[in-house]
Amino acid sequence: MSAQIPSNQDDKTGEHIPLQRQAVRSYVLRAGRMTQAQKRAIEELSPLYLIPFDEKILKPSQLFPDSKPLVLEIGFGMGLATWQIAIGRPLYNYLGVEVHSPGVGRLLMEIQDREISNLKIIQHDAIEVLQSMIAPDSLAGLHIFYPDPWPKKRHHKRRLMRPELVEIMASRLAKGAYLYFVTDIEDYANQTIETLNRCGALKNAYEGFAPRIEWRPQTKFEGKAMVESRPSFELYFIKI
Which of 41, 108, 36 is nearest to 78 (CA)? Predict the structure, then answer.
């Protein structure tokens, strides 16, 4: 059973009805080791930079000091690329969504130490965040860098870039906004470009795979892939 695309008729009226949870998760909660610093960051910094999950549409103007277009990142890992992009592209506000506590703690530390005002975090399932907290046609961009590839064929149903989930992502992008996907797994890249091409709301900004976008810094997973001589495959689609 796969996730169902939610109805958003009530978003435009100001009312909100809780949406059905997805049945197949694209992640598993692993018991990753946390440092004392990461634990302390979550305890002390969450009230400042972490937004609790709620089944209500977010109002970005209440979250950030300046009104800017909002970009959402799904699964930021340890957040290395996330904070660098937030600093390097200050004309946007950023919302990073991640379920794993070590990465959340690490990024909280970076936000505090580097005094980053245009980046906040939600520690929750990204699809539920998109369904319940992000208004339709509201995002300026969506970043998906090196998601879990679920390499075994029987696990492909857990991949994030499934048609029904891509439709949800596309519905949250504003006209002219972008979806930027990167993976080092070739068959996942080929599967994703087919899925994105079939989404009527999105158009490829390139004829096939995109070149590396200059403002995207190298992620931890990308560094590992380069060491193992695995190329990256990039996709950059625009909401039409």
Answer: 108
- Provide the residue-wise pLDDT of the chain in tens; the chain has 240 residues: 333 333 343 443 333 434 455 555 544 555 568 899 999 999 999 999 999 999 999 999 999 999 999 999 999 999 999 999 999 999 999 999 999 999 999 999 999 999 999 999 999 999 999 999 999 999 999 999 999 885 666 646 879 999 999 999 999 999 999 999 999 999 999 999 999 999 999 999 999 999 999 999 987 778 887 888 889 999 999 999
| First and final C-alpha spacing in the chain | 29
pTM metric for this prediction: 0.85
Query: What is the dihedral sign for C-alpha 80, 183, 68, 173?
Result: negative
Q: Which of 10, 148, 184, 187 is catalytic?
A: 148
According to DSSP, residue 22 is labeled P
As a CATH number, domain 41-239 is: 3.40.50.150
Going by C-alpha positions, the residue among 146, 155, 163 that lies closest to residue 200 is: 163
Helical H runs in 66-162? 80-88, 101-113, 126-133
Q: Where are the domains of the chain?
A: 41-239
Q: Is 148 an active-site residue? A: yes
